[in-house]
């Protein structure tokens, strides 16, 4: 049986009715850098670099798509970060956890914090402007 070789996670895509607003949030809160992205005829995209080999692709929402736009537009919206469904988030790690959480507070972003039972890993949960769940953990950056 053949298996893929050299596999790594390349990007995460998020669809939004306002990709400029969403890009600004990720740039201002997490410091992601806008990178060159392709030009499409039917829709706009903004790509943000997360690391040398990983990016976030923000894609203009198809106005004809009948699916809910995001968690906040669902019939039972999840607006409190402590109720974020555990399987519906993206997690990033930062080395300056405490000051990062203060940045979120200073920006008025509602958060929910907890510490893992080992007492070492702190976590903060919050939402982006489209209601997508985010977690930021205090884990150290992996060795390169």
TrEMBL record:
Regions annotated as coiled coil: none
InterPro entries assigned: Glyas_Bleomycin-R_OHBP_Dase, Glyas_Fos-R_dOase_dom, VOC_core
Domain VOC, first and last residues per copy: 8-139
SUPFAM superfamilies: Glyoxalase/Bleomycin resistance protein/Dihydroxybiphenyl dioxygenase
A Pfam family the protein falls into: Glyoxalase
Protein name in UniProt: VOC domain-containing protein
Organism per entry: Nepenthes gracilis (Slender pitcher plant)
